């Protein structure tokens, strides 16, 4: 088996502006997500999810230009520390497509490695499963993390790195 290959790693050269927060405000909601780089050089996705006015989600995304060819790999390893909440890891092979491939995961409150089998990522558009094949694993143009647990809550997800395996 080949050693893991870096997909994205936070370090002293990481720039928060290369990550874009997208909240339910785009559809009239009131959630308030933020993204920053900590002094320890970790990505920090945090904020508050609101259900007011039909809201209920916050996300942060990063685009690769050009897309990363991933067909030689079958898993992504997420090195994260959540607050005990559930999140989704999402990918798009084409940044312009209107749906993502999704893998939900829970966090424990401690640093952990979440193993995401690429073939298990299912297609979803606006929270609705699509009748399409799962992710083929060929390339990744965009990655994102989303929180949408159906309740109002404050949240935090620290991200150290993502590796392909």
From TrEMBL:
GO terms for biological process: NADH dehydrogenase complex assembly. PANTHER family: COMPLEX I INTERMEDIATE-ASSOCIATED PROTEIN 30, NAD(P)-BINDING ROSSMANN-FOLD SUPERFAMILY PROTEIN. GO terms for molecular function: unfolded protein binding. Belongs to the CIA30 family. This is CIA30 family protein. Transmembrane segments: none annotated. Residues 9-159 form the NADH:ubiquinone oxidoreductase intermediate-associated protein domain. It comes from the Bacteria.
């Amino acid at each position: 088996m080949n050693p893991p290959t870096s997909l994205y790693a936070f370090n002293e050269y990481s720039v928060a502006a290369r990550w874009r927060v997208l909240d339910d405000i785009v559809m009239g909601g009131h959630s308030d997500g933020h993204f920053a780089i900590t002094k320890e050089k970790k990505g920090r996705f945090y904020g508050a999810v609101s259900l007011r006015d039909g809201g209920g989600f916050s996300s942060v995304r990063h685009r690769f230009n050009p897309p990363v060819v991933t067909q030689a790999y079958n898993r992504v390893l997420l090195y994260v520390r959540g607050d005990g909440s559930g999140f989704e890891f999402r990918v798009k092979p084409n940044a312009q497509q209107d749906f993502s491939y999704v893998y939900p995961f829970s966090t424990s409150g401690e640093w952990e490695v979440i193993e995401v089998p690429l073939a298990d990522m299912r297609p979803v558009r606006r929270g609705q499963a699509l009748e399409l094949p799962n992710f083929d694993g060929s390339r990744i143009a965009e990655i994102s993390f989303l929180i949408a647990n159906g309740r109002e809550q404050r949240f935090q997800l620290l991200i150290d790195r993502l590796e392909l395996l």
